[in-house]
Amino acid sequence: MPHEKVQEIASKGGHASAGKAGHEGMSERGHKGGETRAEQLGHEGYVEMGHKGGETRAKDLGHEGYVEMAHKGGSAPHSSRQGKGGQEKHKK
């Protein structure tokens, strides 16, 4: 079966499941998933995951991006946020 077809079927199943569970049900699922993940990782695992996320963010932003983020209090633009409320700098 083509990958696109598999994705389409999975998407439809996910939407149907979300429709049945509603917002509260989906929120509860997410909360339970987070608790399970925390139990699996333990404190040290969570700390390591945070460090890796920070390192990845630093690589994504580069030195100038990190400086800009510090000046803005942590709200520097990020490629995944563009078009979703992220701010782009426009040079004149």
Automatic annotation (TrEMBL):
- Compositionally biased tracts (Basic and acidic residues): 21-71
Extent of Low complexity compositional bias: 10-20
State a single Pfam family of this protein: KGG
Q: Which InterPro entries match?
A: LEA_5, Small_hydrophilic_seed_prot, Stress-induced_KGG_rpt
In residue numbers, the region (Disordered) covers: 1-92
PANTHER family membership: EM-LIKE PROTEIN GEA1 (PTHR34671), EMBRYONIC ABUNDANT PROTEIN 1 (PTHR34671:SF19)
Q: Which protein is depicted? A: General stress protein B
